[in-house]
Amino acid sequence: MRRSRWQDVTYRNPYLFALLLLIIALAVNILLQPNLVASATLNSNMRVFLPLILVAIGQAVVMIGGGIDISVGAIVSVVNALLATQIGINGDPGTATIMMGAALFVGMGAGAFNGLFVAYLRLQPIITTFASSFLFAGLALFILPNPGGGVPSLFTAFYRETILLGLPLALYVIALTLAAWALVRQTRYGRYLYAVGGKPDAAYETGVPVRAVQFSSYVVSGLMAALGGIAITLLTGSGNAQVGDPLTLSSITAAVIGGTPLSGGAGGIAGPIMGAVILGLVRNIISFANVETWWQTFVNAAIIVLALAMPGIINLVRRRNV
Amino acid sequence: MAVSLSARNITKRYGAVVALDEANLEIRAGEVLALIGANGSGKSTFTRVMNGVVAPDSGQLLLDGRPMRFASPRAATNAGISTVFQELSLVPQMTVAENIWLTREPLRRGLIDRTTEQRRTADLLALFAGTFRSDLAPDVPVQALLPDEKQIVEILKAVSINPRLLILDEATASLDSRQVQRLFELVAHWKEQGKAIVFVSHRMAEIVQIADRYSVLRNGRTVGEGAMADATASDLVALMVEEAAVASVAQRARPSAEQLATRRVSLQVDDLRTAELNGVSLQVHEGELLGIGGLKGQGQRDLLLALFGSLPYSGRVTLDGQAVHCSHPREAMARGLALVPGERGREGLLAIRSILENLQIPSWRDYGFPLQMERARRTAGAVASRLNLIMAGLDQPVSGLSGGNAQKVVIGKWLLRNPRFLLLDDPTRGIDVGAKAEFYRLLAQLCDEGTTIVFYSSDDDELIGLCDRVLVMHDGKISSELAGATLTATNLIAASLGATRQEATP
Questions:
Q1: Which tens digits make up the pLDDT trace of A215-265?
Q2: Smallest CA–CA separation between A188 and chain B, in Å?
């Protein structure tokens, strides 16, 4: 097993592939839409991308820890339904702030529910979170059977229009998450997360609290999904109990494109953030290219399948060359 | 000198198998104790009892004279007992430094102090300086390292807690001679510091070089201990071997070397290489029962899997004078090969399906469309009675069978295909004596019918009692060939350990 320079570089920078894709997607997008980097256009794009970015970060954390969370989209829906019904278009700012804080706890609670089953009862993450996604989706529909409700325009305007020093609000949020992640990477918890995802048996033998770490990763994912839910509510200004559905698969795709292997123990959050942006840009490109809308579904699906299948394809090619 | 650790009358059973039977061990500060024994003598279980991975059924561990009970590996570590694991306890994706200091990272104001961590790691690596590639640095991921370098990291991880008792379980297995010498210099240094070291190794030369005292296990019992200065390598081998046991294996009438030489070579292998095999060449004659011996994990499994086409390999395989290269088990099956895998639960059987289905899985395509169930039942029934399979009926699920009977189903499903080459991967592990005896008779019968058999076993007695010839494997190579008068327990163990002792015993 010799280590190539390429393997070395990709190990240190798991987001390299995402960066490359991001540059290509940006270039094509700018070609089609030259004013993309103008601060108003940038803002109108980034505020649409932000919900997925937040959810993808949570997904990446779970995947680094060796799990997966299929319920993030449903958690987003629950939060959206909750905010739209409890705050209302004419709600007062005080209630709204409290409800948003409560939404974070709802997200963490949902994550804790997943974590309990996966880490302590040792159920399969895919099955568990797939099942709980129906539970959460049902809850969202119970809270908000028909699309409606909303949040005051004061809040949506803040989310949509805030541009500080020429940069959109979303970029500040991203910078904040990156800073938080940089801090986590310097704690023991950060090390434990990677160890648990990489080789749980070895981590256990070394004395890492494997289950607690697994549990916590789902709580983080729930929290990030709740933040994503708040973002999407502020973006749309209205409630729809199915608004989060597409985010589940997209978040996994973003994480995988961003260099987080499904097998866990590697990756980061810079890659998944880029992955989420890439998915958004691709959607832009397709709509600008004036092709029929089914192409958008098709290309999205193709990216997902390719991103998921890539490690397997690489292995297959390697085996051929033995 | 104070006693550091003493294990008294340790017994550990796994089901009906007794791994340790009142085993004893005593080690003092500042000495190296070699724990030795043949395959399956209980060495690994014993070290696992000492480091808290396995709880003994009975017996006592005394640390500095005080009884101890370790609830987890962590508890043993806290008591100053550290183990270099045979199966690596490293996280491949993490760096050398991250692995060594996992859970004990140096902190400054709550955050990991990477500068200190890197420095301490570099200090540890300096212990082995000059014996590894320059690539082995604190910030390199473990998965990028070579096996010997991983082993060094594993050793350093164990040493980094500054243990009072260090257990080196096959720690030298993947090291080269320079690295072993360095390790031994370090061990000498640790001895002076008053550490106690338990050294488990299969390499006799190393044991003689490094150990102060020895303790020999045979079938889970401590059968001898003493000062290394008073014993020779052959004394130790003699202690490890129980010649009388060989008689318990059914002997078969074996063809002489001359008779074998007159038969044609049906399987020839030249320079077979895989990740684990470093160039294996062998010849098997038609109707010969060729044994493969040696310590566990010397490439025996790879050899069988490569021949069966389930492992990519390079080299030449010739069946009946025709060069073949099977890259899928299906091709191997078409050429008359069959493999009885070692992990019968995982690779050999579908536990919840019926005996009939399990027997016919490789053969369904011979029963047409729609499947001729009558004929399938008849042939399956015939093979079941030939194997003396004890069952309620062909429709009984395999999960209800005993180990011996389940193994008969695995063999039976290949017998149904009338294989000309039968590859056996430790087939008698964990099956009872009666089933073993039947199995031995079956092998003899198959050989007489002209089936060529390659038989890997971790049970030396079987190899000696049954095989025409035994090839001993070591480090992915065939290290020696034993046949006729040289095929004795003593020679087999000596060859497995790499000690040179080839003379025939009368």
A1: 999 999 999 999 999 999 999 988 898 898 889 988 998 998 888 888 888
A2: 7
Write b or e for each residue in A61-73: b if 16 or more Cβ atoms lie within 10 A of its Cβ, otherwise e. Answer: bbbbbbbbbbbbb
* Entry pTM: 0.75
Rounded to the nearest angstrom, the gap between the alpha carbon of residue A200 and the centroid of all alpha carbons in its chain is 24
A226's CB contacts (< 8 A; 6+ apart) are A75, A76, A79, A103, A104, A106, A107, A108, A110
The range of the structural domain enclosing residue B396 comes to 345-416
Could you tell me if residue B168 is left (phi over 0), alpha (psi between -120 and 50 degrees) or otherwise beta? beta
| Residues B286 and B214 grouped into a single domain | no
Residues B332, B358 share a domain:
no
B252 belongs to a structural domain:
no
Same domain, B240 and B349: no
Q: Do A188 and B107 touch (CB under 8 A)?
A: yes
Show which residues on chain B lie within 8 Å of chain A, measured between beta carbons: 53, 73-74, 77, 85, 88-94, 98, 102-103, 105, 107, 110-112, 114, 135, 141, 144, 146, 312
> Cβ contact (<8 Å) for B102 and A195?
yes
Residue B505 lies in a domain: no
Distance from CA of B47 to the nearest CA of A (A): 15
Which residues of B fall within a CB distance of 8 Å from A319?
312
Interface of A with B (CB under 8 A): 1, 3, 7-8, 11, 183, 186-188, 191-192, 194-195, 197-199, 201-203, 205-208, 265-266, 319, 322
Distance (Å, whole) CA A37 – CA A18: 19
pLDDT greater at residue B175 or residue B9: B9
**Does residue A115 carry a pLDDT above 50?**
yes
Of B389, B416, B443, which closes a domain? B416
Q: Do B89 and A7 touch (CB under 8 A)?
A: no
* Contacts with A270 (C-beta within 8 Å, 6 or more apart), sequence order: A15, A178, A181, A258
Tell me the C-alpha distance between A193 and A202, whole Å: 13
* Local structure of B388: helix, strand or coil: coil
B205 and B153 together in one domain: yes
CB pair distance less than 8 Å for B94 and A198: yes
Residues of chain B neighbouring A266 (CB-CB closer than 8 A): 93
Which 8-state DSSP code applies to residue A263?
Answer: T
Domains, chain A, ordered by start: 44-311 (1.10.3470)
Mutation test of the interface with chain B: which of A13, A63, A183, A191, choosing the one with the most B Cβ atoms within 10 A?
A: A191
Residue A21: CB atoms within 10 Å: 22
- Are B47 and B100 found together in one domain? yes
Do B30 and B157 sit in the same domain of this protein?
yes
Q: Give yes or no: residues B331 and B456 share one domain.
A: yes
Q: What is the CATH number of the domain that holds B92?
A: 3.40.50.300
**Both B304 and B424 in a single domain?**
yes
Beta-bridged to residue B169, according to DSSP, are B200
pLDDT in tens, A169-227: 899 999 999 999 999 999 999 999 999 999 888 888 888 888 999 999 999 999 999 99
Kindly write down the DSSP assignment for every residue of B1-31, as one continuous string. Answer: --EEEEEEEEEEEETTEEEEEEEEEEEETT-
Q: Is residue B251 part of a domain?
A: no
* pLDDT tens string B58-85: 888 888 888 888 877 778 888 888 888 7
> CB-CB: which of B92, B98, B114 is closest to A199?
B92
Size of interface A-B (CB pairs under 8 A): 70
Q: What are phi and psi of B286, to 5 degrees?
A: -60, 130
Q: Do B114 and A206 touch (CB under 8 A)?
A: no
Number of domains in chain B: 3
Using a CB-CB cut-off of 8 Å, the residues of chain B touching A8 are 144
| Cβ-defined contact of B94 to A194 (cutoff 8 Å) | yes
Note whether residue B249 is domain-resident. no
